[in-house]
Amino acid sequence: MRDFYGTTLKNGLMLGTAQYPSPAIMVEAFKRSAACVATVSLRRESGNDRAGQDFWAIIRDLGVHVLPNTAGCHSVKEAVTTAHMAREVFGTKWIKLEVIGEEDTLQPDVFGLVEAARILTDDGFQVFPYTTEDLVVAGKLLDAGCEVLMPWGAPIGSGLGLNNPYGLKSMRAHFPDVPLVIDAGLGLPSQAAQAMEMGFDAVLLNTAVAKAGDPAAMAEAFAGAVHAGHLAAAADPMEPRDMAAPSTPVLGKAFLL
Ligand SMILES: CC(=O)[C@@H](O)[C@H](O)COP(=O)(O)O
């Protein structure tokens, strides 16, 4: 597994913590999947009341790396303020940076994203930016100090999978040494396997697990798919070809004369 700001993760599955039918089911999903990163939104979970405090205690007890996020932030200011709160609450420099630019697609505002990333990295944060597959934006995020990139698979909550495999493959090829995480839009384990087969280092998802009929079973299914995709990528997959090629050797075959 690749290093994420100096931390080597034991697998490539990162799970969100929102929308589960109950906290107990969320905990079970983490257990059965052995996901090693939990992303948590400070804006959705209020820390001022008892329920918020209890929720954060549950997250801490998961025993996984906590990746606070700025989900729901629409401006640089909001995102930066939320990141500071997150650092205080969770005592981590990690922040999944979301600056949402458009309501229908929840597409990132990439201009605000780069600006916020620069402010936060200058301030000692280790930023995981939720971005698109745009290579120019990716380069600017790296220039701003990001050492990890999180391109979207598809719009958040859509479950559409990898909308632009060509663009994502280009991104992988363009930045071979940068840890890349597919973030958002996955609906099925096969899509997570596809991402890992393409050489991505991890996937982050929430809705597909939390909204499944059996979230814990779905989390386990995603874990299996991530593992299979990772193994496949490391096993140097064959190149697809246009023409048939017999897979059964003809040498030694009996011929009738
Ligand atoms: C939880 C979180 O951080 C989301 O913003 C994330 O991008 C997951 O998206 P899905 O819910 O589509 O998996």
UniProtKB/TrEMBL annotation:
Catalyzes the rearrangement of 1-deoxy-D-xylulose 5-phosphate (DXP) to produce the thiazole phosphate moiety of thiamine. Sulfur is provided by the thiocarboxylate moiety of the carrier protein ThiS. In vitro, sulfur can be provided by H(2)S. It is an enzyme of class 2 (transferase). It comes from the Bacteria. Pathway: Cofactor biosynthesis; thiamine diphosphate biosynthesis. Pfam families: ThiG. The keyword Transferase applies. 1-deoxy-D-xylulose 5-phosphate binds at residues 157, 184-185, 206-207. This is Thiazole synthase. Keywords: Cytoplasm, Schiff base, Thiamine biosynthesis, Transferase. GO terms for cellular component: cytoplasm. It is found in: Cytoplasm. InterPro entries: Aldolase_TIM, Thiazole_synthase_ThiG, ThiG. Belongs to the ThiG family. It catalyses: [ThiS sulfur-carrier protein]-C-terminal-Gly-aminoethanethioate + 2-iminoacetate + 1-deoxy-D-xylulose 5-phosphate = [ThiS sulfur-carrier protein]-C-terminal Gly-Gly + 2-[(2R,5Z)-2-carboxy-4-methylthiazol-5(2H)-ylidene]ethyl phosphate + 2 H2O + H(+). GO terms for molecular function: thiazole synthase activity. It comes from Ahrensia marina. Homotetramer. Forms heterodimers with either ThiH or ThiS. The active site is at residue 96. Its main location: cytoplasm. Residues 4-249 form the Thiazole synthase ThiG domain. GO terms for biological process: thiamine diphosphate biosynthetic process. Its EC number is 2.8.1.10.
